[in-house]
């Protein structure tokens, strides 16, 4: 398992960032990782955004967490995306009115999901 936590502030909003990987790859294991993250995030103040390469096809992460996707679109593989394994999920009372998009940055084997969330 690896973690590299950091907390930053932008526009009065605290952002907590961690990298998380635990165990061997595989869909069943990826589902357990999502369940673990959901449990670990339960007590934190809302709103929260959970994002990253989950290695799970949509809509599995949203269904397992109960969180809402802020962006959807095929992200993998980059050169010919056929399914979404990267996710941006939201948990909070007010769901922001945003439009997500898929962007080919050319620096990964995935396309990036992008969404602009203003402070509210």
Would you mind describing this structure in some detail?
There is one protein chain. The chain is α+β, with helices and mostly antiparallel strands. 18% of the residues lie in helices and 27% in strands. A three-stranded antiparallel β-sheet has the order 3-5-4, with no helix packed on it. A two-stranded antiparallel ribbon has the order 1-2. The longest helix is centred in the first third of the chain and has 15 residues, at 27-41.
Can you list the strand order of the major beta sheet?
Answer: 3-5-4
Summarize the amount of helix as a percent range: 10-25%
The SSE string, one letter per element, is EEHEHEEEE
- Count the DSSP helices: 2
Strand content: 25-35%
Separation, N- and C-terminal Cα atoms: 34 Å
Largest sheet: 3 strands, antiparallel
Spans where pLDDT lies below 50 across 5 or more residues: none
Instruction: Report the strand count.
Output: 7
Inertia-based shape: globular
Helix and strand composition category: alpha+beta
Mean pLDDT: 84
**What is the CA-atom radius of gyration, in angstroms?**
14 Å
